[in-house]
C-alpha cells in the first residue's frame, strides 16, 4: 500500500478513535461520577503517552521546562482540570450528539483569545466560520420544543470549550516541547488535580473495573489518537491531516446516535448543517494557507480530544489553531505571520 494511503488511514483512525470519547463517556458516567471520570480519562492518557514516550524515546527529544514557561504550564494544568469536569457534568445533562458538536465552540474561544491577547490575524473565511459555529452553538443550546430557555448541560459544555480555548493559548507558549511531553504533563497533573477535587467533594472511587475502563478510554481516545495523528501528519502534512480529522465531531454524532439510540430534534439537525458549513470553510482556509505561502515557520500543532490537548511539531506557513472536540472534535484555526508559532489542534 502506498505511504500516503497508509497515512490517510492513520488520519481517519485518529478521528474515529477520538470520536468515540463522548458517547462512551456518556455510557461510563452511569457508573463513574463526573469529576472522577475527568480524572481517570486524563490519567489514562498521561500514563499511556508516558509509556509510549519511553518505548519510542520521544521523552528524550524535548527540552526541559523553563522558568518563563512555568506560568503557562500552571495555567494549562488548571484549565485542563476545569474543562473536562465541566464537560463531564454537562454531558450528564445533555445528549452526546449535542456535546460533540458544541465542542466546536472551542474554535471561537481560542481564535478570539488569540486575536485579542496575542494579536493573531483572522482570515475572512475563518471569521465567517466562527460566526457559523457561534450560530450553530446557540441553536444547539436551546431546550427545544419552542422553549427560549438554554439547556444547562449545553452551557456547561460551552464553558468547557471556553476553558480549552484559553488553555490552548497557554499551551501555544510551550512550543519547544514535544507532543508526548505536553500530553504526559497534562495527563498526570490535571488528572491528579481532578482526582483530589473529586475526593474533596465526596465522590466515591469507582470499582476497579470501571477505573480500568475509563483509563483505557483515555488512552485510546486521546493517546492512540494522538499517535495516529502524528504518524499521518508526517506523510500528509498538517493541512491534509486536519482536513481528514475534521470528520471527528460528525463521527461522534453518528456513534452517539448508534450507541445510545439518541433521537435529536429538528434544531439539532439545523445546528448540524450550520456546523458542516463552518467545517468546510475551515478546511479550505487551512489548505489554501498551506499552498499560498512559501516561507516556512516551525510551530507546534496542538490537538484536543474532547478533554485533552496534545501538540505536534511541524513546519507550516501560518499559525493555525484548528480544534476538533474533542472535542478535542471542534476545529479551531488562528493565523499569524510570525517566524515561530503554534498550529494548535485541540482534542
| Neighbour order of strands in the largest sheet | 4-3-5
Number of domains: 1
How many beta-strand segments? 5
Mean pLDDT: 81
Large-scale geometry = globular
List keywords for this structure.
mainly alpha; two-stranded antiparallel sheet; 5 strands; 347 residues; three-stranded mixed β-sheet; globular
Structure description:
- The structure is a single chain.
- The protein is mainly α.
- Helices cover 66% and strands 8% of the residues.
- The strands form two sheets. It has a three-stranded mixed beta sheet with strand order 4-3-5.
- Strand 1 (142-144) and strand 2 form a beta hairpin.
- Helix 5 (96-102) runs antiparallel to helix 12.
- It is globular, with a radius of gyration of 18 Å.
- The chain starts with a helix and ends with a strand.
- Mean pLDDT is 81; it is low at 293-346.
Chart the SSEs and their pairings:
Layout: H1 3-19, H2 21-28, H3 34-56, H4 70-93, H5 96-102, H6 106-118, H7 124-141, E1 142-144, E2 147-150, H8 152-171, H9 179-200, H10 208-236, H11 238-245, H12 248-260, H13 266-292, E3 297-304, E4 309-316, E5 340-344
Parallel strand pairs: 3-5
Antiparallel strand pairs: 1-2, 3-4
Helix pairs in contact: 1-10, 1-11, 1-12, 2-10, 2-12, 3-4, 3-9, 3-10, 4-8, 4-9, 5-12, 6-8, 7-13, 10-11, 11-13
